[in-house]
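Researcher: Last one for today. Full complex below.
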Amino acid sequence: DIQMTQSPSSLSAFVGDRVTITCRASQAITNYLNWYQQKPGKAPKLMIYAASNLESGVPSRFSGNGSGTDFSFTINSLQPEDVATYYCQQYDNLPRTFGQGSKVEIK
Amino acid sequence: QVQLVESGGALVKPGGSLRLSCTASGFNLSDHYMSWIRQTPAKGLEWVSYISNRGYSIYYSASVKGRFTISRDNANNSLYLQMDSLRADDTAVYYCATGKRTYNYWGHGTLVTVSS
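Model: Here's the assembly. Have a good evening.
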């Protein structure tokens, strides 16, 4: 199975800050990587697909980058409504696997 | 408006069975591959299974293969997960989602608790 490792596990930042989460795959996955946002008590929501493509309706302050084994997810200008846990997910191989999550909070 | 609604979650004893349902509205289920994904605080998000739009292609995770069966009824816009020989580590919130690689739409989830 491909292991997905996210860092940091949690972070706290000020409104307006730029926040970056990284995701590393245990083997190369080309750009077969998605990012999801999950708010407490809710289902995950697709934010970024194929490493860098913004899902329809997602604000442009969110972005993704990377290929191979190393990927990043950035929130430019953190907003209060961005408080959530973010997950990466690979779809290069079965089983599909997710990172352990990165919890984003406001200072 | 695309909506997925899961049902069937319950408290069940180890070794027992449960059937989860996922009803779709706002789109034709027959146009989409569908997946089941579960979530626990300890293990996070875990892919369980997917089924092709007509049901001819099915895959399971190693942890549920031989115990769970995914199926669909496109005429009724419904997806199912038959879970047999349930174990304590199957305790989770179960989500249905569209897609086999990228999960564009998710249901709200249904809680399955396996405990004596």
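Chain B touches chain A at residues 35, 44-47, 59, 61-62, 95, 101-104, 106-109 (CB under 8 Å). Chain B has a mean pLDDT of 97.
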